[in-house]
Amino acid sequence: MKQHIDDTSRAYFPAKGAQWEEVKQRLAAFKDRDIGQAQGRLNVYCHQGTPELQTIRDEAYTMFSHGNAMLGGFMEGSGTMEAEVLRMALEILNGAENGIGFITTGGTESIFCAMHAAREWALVNRPVPGTPEIITPYSAHAAFDKACHFLGMNIVRVALRDDLYADVAAMEAAVTENTIAIMGSAPCWPYGLIDPITEIAAVAMRHNLWMHVDACVGGYINPWLERLGYDIPTFDFRVPGVRSMSADLHKHGYAAKPCSTVLYSSSDAETYHYVPVDNWPIGEYRTAGMVGSRPAGSIATAWAVMNVLGEEGYVEMARQCMAVKERLVEGIEKIEDLKCLKNDSTMIYFRSETLDMMTIMGGLSERGYFPFGVFNPPMLQLVPEPTSDEVINDYLRTLAEVATGVRNGTITSTALARYT
Ligand SMILES: Cc1ncc(COP(=O)(O)O)c(C=O)c1O
């Protein structure tokens, strides 16, 4: 990642502190230099929802900005708040009857925790002769590679079907005596497609494997799309064999970052989730996940947003996201040479047979947009949010201008292009 240090020849840490008012102004200047999220110019990784939700997040975070959620066991108020968020999460994903969950700092940590639990479970329930391995579709998030790296496991990414969904038969064929876990995404980040979770879970049951569903993006929007009548295949704890799920409250849950959930179908998973430590001067030490101290502020935002929106509010947010998606897809497909890839979520992916997508990204970046792309196959990615006609029209106008420029050779720079 680029480190934006303006002047490397000077020291930055001040010997003497400045007035807060002055420091605040400098913070505001940093904020101004960021690409405008409110104007829809940052199209991924934001999940802001509406301006009202931003205000709720700001106020709720401030009320708990002092708090350390690691102390939830001792703090009756924030401990109850966290337990209620987890209970709501399990209710939403149909795991409340027997399940348990933990709040983590993000999808990556939730995936790490689930893979750790899988490894510990396998020690007892599926001992393997060699290095434990997990099987994922090629489209699984990079967090699985990171988890395997930290946990001393191997990841086997299996090629996808031609339509970019997980190839379940090929995944089953990849199972070896060292396989301990298998997973599917709902949806995957690179293509927005919901893998055939029921079929993958059936493989898990046939081979006694841990089954994880990565619903970091979909966990808190698929249920509402289902209510709205979209064709969302069953992906949650209703699917027999699913043992764990990652679902991010800081994405479509509209909580402040960092806030995710790792959920288990059975409270027995507690044994595999925790890393008990007592052999140090402080005695027993048990934390919710990989990290120690955690922000109570972001948990407060999750609790607040979940209570302000309720099911009705979330369904309405999902409806608005889909309405924005429909308008954007319609507009993108009207631009010569651009084509959208159908997917199962609110995300948009578009590609071209003739125009270089890196140059399209370069052109959008030069015009103040912050595009993200997929490398294989080359595509651009958008995550629509409820937004104004002005924002939608400005994006479509800019994209059309860039496509024309790339086609006629007046836009050639890929300098600012980037992939997620
Ligand atoms: C499907 C999926 N899984 C996991 C992650 C990782 O989440 P985080 O960035 O919160 O660690 C992402 C992030 O976009 C994702 O899309």
UniProtKB/TrEMBL annotation:
The keyword Transferase applies. InterPro entries: GrpII_AminoAcid_Decarb, PyrdxlP-dep_de-COase. The keyword Lyase applies. It comes from the Bacteria. Keywords: Aminotransferase, Lyase, Pyridoxal phosphate, Transferase. Pfam families: Pyridoxal_deC (PF00282). Signal peptide: none annotated. GO terms for molecular function: transaminase activity. Its cofactor is pyridoxal 5'-phosphate. Transmembrane segments: none annotated. This is Aminotransferase class V-fold PLP-dependent enzyme. It comes from Pacificimonas pallii. The lineage of its organism: Bacteria, Pseudomonadati, Pseudomonadota, Alphaproteobacteria, Sphingomonadales.
